[in-house]
């Protein structure tokens, strides 16, 4: 939390950190003694850059806002709520209670007087901002200008390269383990199985609060973990491609183009909305708003000649709507495509 600015004005910006999820006792235990499993392991000083920067030259529309960066340690995008605690593992599945505790503390510190507020996040934090968007708005004063945006949080429900529903099964395990069903939007769970309501494509059309989606259609996390997870690629055929899109074969690029079309179909299924905004570029990237080079810089990614910062700022302040989708890779020359270190194993729902 940026304590310097907490009482300065009536503008408040939340940013939920990412960090994937854990879907069973083993994967949750592997996070238990890290920053993704305990606030005791979180660093005390965090960088505030990109949309969290307090310098007008780096963040012209939001630099003077109160800023709260929320650590991520529950592994369920703050939806879990299980009363029982296993006496052996000592694992707590109570992310929804953590979310409420954070909100209660901030309400007591002045959030109840906010006139402008944004709920946002990256990756699993971006999913948090979608799932909790309306409940967040309900906490704020009547008449407050409240909007949400998700950075790289629009995870889609598709089969992997082997034809298996890998991500659907994974999310089913997450929702079951964490007891998330009761904390997912009822408008979705009343008609679909709870695990399907962990997918934004089944939830976002029902979000009443204005929502902005920032996502790469070739999202590097989704390519690595949804399209071509290790379990679907036992011989590592996709390894080099997942590390660097320039090393993808023509066949792999063709499959990735197909994934983009599925992503756009899942986005278009939300239907039209004048209050919804989106910036969907064709970069090989994941999370673009907290990093200065992709948020607001002379060489930042652009659509319709606007950076993400400019598009989001215009949308929030109702200057101009923004709903733009990029042309297919590699037409966009403004992209900052991620290149991953081959010595750092970052696949399979662990980032």
From TrEMBL:
Domain of life (superkingdom): Eukaryota
| Keywords of the record | Cell wall, Cell wall biogenesis/degradation, Hydrolase, Secreted
Q: Which Pfam families match?
A: PAE
Which compartments is it annotated to reside in? Secreted, Cell wall
Q: Main localisation, per the record?
A: secreted
Q: Which EC number(s) does the record attach to this protein?
A: 3.1.1.-
Looking up InterPro entries in the UniProt record yields:
PAE/NOTUM
Function description: Hydrolyzes acetyl esters in homogalacturonan regions of pectin. In type I primary cell wall, galacturonic acid residues of pectin can be acetylated at the O-2 and O-3 positions. Decreasing the degree of acetylation of pectin gels in vitro alters their physical properties.
- PANTHER family from the xrefs? NOTUM-RELATED, PECTIN ACETYLESTERASE 8
Q: Would you identify the family this protein belongs to, as annotated?
A: Belongs to the pectinacetylesterase family.
Q: What name is this protein filed under?
A: Pectin acetylesterase
The scientific name of the source species is Solanum pennellii
Which gene holds the coding sequence for this protein?
LOC107028823
């Amino acid at each position: 939390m940026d304590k310097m600015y907490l009482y300065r004005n009536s503008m408040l910006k939340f940013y939920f950190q990412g960090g994937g999820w854990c879907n069973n006792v083993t994967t949750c235990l592997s996070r238990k003694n890290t920053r993704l499993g305990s606030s005791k392991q979180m660093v005390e000083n965090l960088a505030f850059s990109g949309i969290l920067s307090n310098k007008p030259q780096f963040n012209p529309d939001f630099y003077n806002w109160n800023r709260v960066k929320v650590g991520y340690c529950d592994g369920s995008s703050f939806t879990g709520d299980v009363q029982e605690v296993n006496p052996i593992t000592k694992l707590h599945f109570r992310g929804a209670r953590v979310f409420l505790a954070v909100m209660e503390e901030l309400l007591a510190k002045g959030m109840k007087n906010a006139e402008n507020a944004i709920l946002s996040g990256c990756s699993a934090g971006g999913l948090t901002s979608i799932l909790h968007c309306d409940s967040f708005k309900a906490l704020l004063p009547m008449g407050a200008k409240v909007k949400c945006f998700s950075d790289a949080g629009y995870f889609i429900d598709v089969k992997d390269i082997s034809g298996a529903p890998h991500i659907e099964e994974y999310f089913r395990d997450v929702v079951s383990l964490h007891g998330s069903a009761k904390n997912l939007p009822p408008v979705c769970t009343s008609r679909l199985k709870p695990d399907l309501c962990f997918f934004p494509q089944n939830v976002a059309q029902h979000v009443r609060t204005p929502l902005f989606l920032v996502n790469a259609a070739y999202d590097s996390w989704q390519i690595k973990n949804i399209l071509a997870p290790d379990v679907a690629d036992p011989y590592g055929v996709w390894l080099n491609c997942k590390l660097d899109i320039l090393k993808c074969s023509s066949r792999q690029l063709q499959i990735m183009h197909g994934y983009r079309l599925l992503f756009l179909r899942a986005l278009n299924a939300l239907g039209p909305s004048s209050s919804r905004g989106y910036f969907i570029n064709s970069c090989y990237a994941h999370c673009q708003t907290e990093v200065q080079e992709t948020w607001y810089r002379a060489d930042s990614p652009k659509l319709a000649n606007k950076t993400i910062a400019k598009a989001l700022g215009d949308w929030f302040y109702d200057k101009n709507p923004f709903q733009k989708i990029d042309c297919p890779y590699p037409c966009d020359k403004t992209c900052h495509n991620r290149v991953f270190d081959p010595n750092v194993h970052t696949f399979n729902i662990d980032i």
